[in-house]
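Components:
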Amino acid sequence: MIEVENLTKFYGPRPAIKGISFTVNQGEVVGFLGPNGAGKSTTMNILCCILPATGGSAKICGHDVFEESLEVRKKIGYLPETPPLYPDMTVTSYLKFAAEIRRVPSAKVRAAVDRVLEKCVLQDVRQRIISRLSKGFQQRVGLAQSMIHDPEILILDEPTIGLDPIQIIEIRKLIQELASSHTIILSSHILPEITQICKRVVILNEGEIAAVDSLEGLTSSLNKSERFILKVRNPQNDIQDKLMALAQVISVKEEKDSEFLIECGMNSQAQDQVARMALENSWGIEELKLVSMTLEEIFLHLTMEEDPPGEAKNGVDA
Amino acid sequence: MRNAWAVAKRDMGSYFNSPVFYVVTTVFLVIYSFIFFQILTFFNFQSVQAGQFQGMNVGLNLNDMVIEPSFHNMAVTLLLIIPVLTMRSFAEEKKSKTYALLLSSPIHLREIVFGKFLACMTVVAVMILLSSYCIGFLLLLGQPEIGPIVTSYLGMLLMAGCYVAMGVFASSLTDNQIIAAVIAFGMSLFMWIIGWAGQAASAEMAEVLQFLSLVDHMQRFLKGIVETSDVIYYLTFILFNLFLTHRVLDSERWR
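Structure:
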């Protein structure tokens, strides 16, 4: 559906994206993740034919974004970071205009407007002036605009930025509904959002792809060890030494009072031994649970370059 | 073409919904009316004088002494006022980021440019139409010749088209409306006075400069003559500016 190969963009001498490649299949929901200035918006602008790339190629439904940009633009719906709203128009007249310039046949404009009004729950504000709407409604009008021509692909640049938590949940629900019938690329620097909506993530950092993988894939490829937390009621002084003595345990760290973070080899079943030891020494287990790496940690891990580059590359699946 | 019309329709809606249009039109009508009735009063005074001395009324007619100078003044007033209308066309879209909607839609850049021009042109035409009530008075109370009036309006529209095209071009250069207005005003004024440079230039050069001047081509329209070369000059001028606009917007994406 979307094939990006070796895409490069320079703003003057400064590279915004440096040779990125990825593909998105039909019906997928892919998240672009990265700190500000990582090249997320630039990539999206190129895919939407707003900016030409400096090098490389991008194809949408087999059409090159530069050579056949008109065909590409018929197939995509784009919601930029700032929703492109005319503040002096009413919601309905704005959506009608969007339908017209997106080449919806005249006879179908009205039906298209009604459809997106319903989908984005905008019926109650249809005659309101856009500048008088709350940010949440404005964002929904922006989203409605992007799907007025029922495009195959939706490209959403930070769709939930600047919204309050309730509005974020609403927009997120809407995107999840859309995911069943559209191919969606969305960008965000809010991690839980990506985990909730997307099946696959592209992590961008300083114009390069740090990782492309499914969420499970990312988590497991970065976890070469298991970690769990042990919380006890009566910790004894030698608890750390005793735990370290176990064969599979790699490290023990006291996180808080009587709470220990134990790192051990993959699939080593070290929990059993830790539990047995705790019972034998009557430490009194309060909690023993596995901690998997959160996306937050993966993100930092991949973008902050805390680890030697060799390790980070394990996540790359290009 | 349907796309250009869609762009034009939206722009017109936004003109007629905003106070800018009403303020600008009011100012234009007040100034034009003031000048017009000033000229008319002077004409009346001369007529009365001529009436007292037999034979002095030769050459006193409404077309030459009222209508023609009033159109001259209208041209100057439009020069001052059109940049205020055109300044928003692209600058505002860029500033408020709505430009991305146009660019990501399946329409050609030339359709956007033409749509913007068409919208401004319509607004200016409405302004000129409203000002015609002055001429209406003359038709009611006197017998001016109709022909030159019609050609004058045609010429005025063509000339206003040049101002609008320059204004749209200036607006495409920047996302700041004030800068767009100042550039448009400067360009319009320069194209008006460019003929003056002819006085210091060689004979051939003077002719070229004279030909380039916007005002020179107006003269024949005001006399009731539609010369093909004048029409072609104005149309070429408009198209050239729209072409430049297209080039500027296209090249902007590459920077």
